[in-house]
């Protein structure tokens, strides 16, 4: 398929600008979801190119939770069974559609939320606003996707909310012990870490690096999507000055390909080493890794938890804030707000994580909980998939709440009758 608009990539680039303080505005978030709708329309205008998939007679389609267009397309292809799968914690709007209780009073929202597990009144107010904003915006997405499918496919195409609510299972790429404890449905299956391979031996090159540093190695990576030269020169200088204060540790930092400018900035600091790639999961398993400085992408957070390594999180956008707060809530790390980022904030966080034994103790406990829990993710995922393929559908797991409108769901009609009767 060709000829797609670039608006989604452009909005994502603007949204994810490293130190942009305005990613949580209504306009910024509306812009990115509007681009997703455009992308959906581009696909539907080319539906003839993938029409052949409808004749494949799929037994099962797994659809990502982020985009309702995927779920509607899955329904269009007429599989025998349909399941939703998340790339991280469940989104507020997914909870709404599925009939999972909303708890913004104590559950941090997924998008751009710097709130933790225990919130003050101002934080709960902010979290509630984030929940309202996310719910409203994604209700708009649902409405637009419905309109698009009714325009391009059929005027009688079913409501996408109903399609999602009828998903037989909901797989969540998170871990019960790591995530904030929350209410879920019978069909919510946690599979955080599924597919994560067992650590492999390091090459001699990386094994040699692991032997550096009198007190160990600190791993530094801000993900594959972050172009390291997009850090300002001042930000990089502040970071490297902070690293130089911990001369007993060796810092191994992943940078973008060809980023000679970053190497030049740290050329006189002996305890920093740069590579353009490293086997992150394998390195995190090494006994000489003492901490991980990360952007807080969910896969990195999950690998950190499964390997039992304390972390320092510098989040930039979307779920990274919540992911960092999740680690902080479990006392496995510290989060640095991008608006506070600098030499001193980084030094303070590193002193806390490297020298306070509670962080390594909590990280090791988390590793133990995840590795020894009765239901391991790979086995759990495969067993449920096989069960679903046998049964083809599981309507018994759909709660009545998923079929109710918001007035009935929240008992606002009951409450209004109660208020009116008291007034009269």
From TrEMBL:
Belongs to the UDP-glycosyltransferase family. GO terms for molecular function: glucuronosyltransferase activity. Keywords: Glycosyltransferase, Transferase. It is a single-pass membrane protein. Coiled coil: none annotated. Pfam families: UDPGT. It catalyses: glucuronate acceptor + UDP-alpha-D-glucuronate = acceptor beta-D-glucuronoside + UDP + H(+). GO terms for cellular component: membrane. Its EC number is 2.4.1.17. This is UDP-glucuronosyltransferase. InterPro entries: UDP-glycosyltransferase, UDP_glucos_trans, UDP_glycos_trans_CS. It is found in: Membrane. It comes from the Eukaryota. It is an enzyme of class 2 (transferase). PANTHER family: EG:EG0003.4 PROTEIN-RELATED, UDP-GLUCURONOSYLTRANSFERASE. It comes from Panagrolaimus davidi.
